[in-house]
Specification:
The chain has 245 residues and is an alpha/beta fold. The chain folds into 2 domains: 5-101 and 192-230, Nucleotidyltransferase, domain 5 (2-Layer Sandwich), CATH 3.30.420; 108-190, Nucleotidyltransferase, domain 5 (2-Layer Sandwich), CATH 3.30.420.40. Helices cover 32% and strands 27% of the residues.
Length: 245
């Protein structure tokens, strides 16, 4: 695939990550996310595009981390991706590429630590984690020299319920939150779904036809119920404590 002009961002965790690709050039920014992401994302996007010498009209696609992750963060990223894509090219619009955040965690673990069998995990709050296994398969036909094989559905469970197959690495931010409650003794590396990881994944996903019109770009939620009452959270905590080893 020829060099492309891409904008990518992720606000699914407590870190804001934005990157712009202009041909072979990549400019990136990482900063505080969470509640600040809704006010800092667009100014950061504009700043990086200006540094890269790009306008919205020159973008080939807008890439965003669709989840799972923070509900507010996912809605922020999706809304900004839709708005920017709708308005680009004088209203003609550009495609949007939603990318799974757990896949981006696996890709970041490969790029930073050389991991090829990754159990990607992200803190899901409410004393739970998002989890999915990904295996890197060598394939010289792919832009990165390989591709990730992963499940169609992701898991949501208590940290104590995470099991790690022999030879696999736990990656993500969940170990930092839950410590040895999550896969005690298993090898673990820190990794977040960065915008740079989204950019590396984008060429193969675009070639596979995964881009969608702006109005079809949606977050990926794993937990059906966004909020629980205090009583419901306490009941869930007691149930997990009663069944824990």
């Amino acid at each position: 695939m020829p060099s492309m002009n891409l904008l990518a961002f992720d606000t699914s965790t407590d870190r804001l990550s934005v990157a712009v690709q202009h041909g072979a050039q990549v400019l990136a920014h990482s900063g505080a996310g969470g509640a600040q992401a809704s006010t800092t994302l667009i100014p950061t996007v504009r700043s990086l595009l200006a540094q890269a010498g790009l306008t919205f009209a020159q973008l080939d696609a807008v890439v965003f981390g669709r989840g799972p992750g923070s509900f507010t963060g996912l809605r922020t990223a999706c809304a900004v991706a839709q708005g920017l894509a709708f308005g680009a090219r004088g209203g003609l619009g550009v495609p949007v590429l939603p990318v799974d955040t757990l896949l981006a965690v696996a890709e970041q673990a490969r790029a930073e630590h050389g991991c090829t069998r990754v159990l990607a995990t992200l803190d899901a709050r409410m004393d739970e984690v998002y989890v999915a296994p990904f295996e890197w398969l060598a394939d010289e036909r792919q832009p990165l020299g390989g591709r990730w094989s992963g499940p169609p559905d992701f898991g949501l469970c208590a940290p104590e319920a995470v099991t790690v197959p022999d030879g696999w690495i736990v990656a993500g931010n969940a170990r930092a939150v839950y410590g040895e409650r999550l896969a005690p003794g298993a090898p673990c590396v820190p990794a977040l779904p960065t915008a740079e990881a989204l950019l590396r994944l984008a060429p193969a996903l675009l070639a596979a036809g995964c881009a969608v019109p702006a109005d079809a770009a949606l977050p990926r939620y794993i937990r059906d119920k966004v909020a629980q009452t205090t009583a419901e959270r306490e009941a869930a905590r007691r149930a997990r404590a009663a069944t824990a080893p």
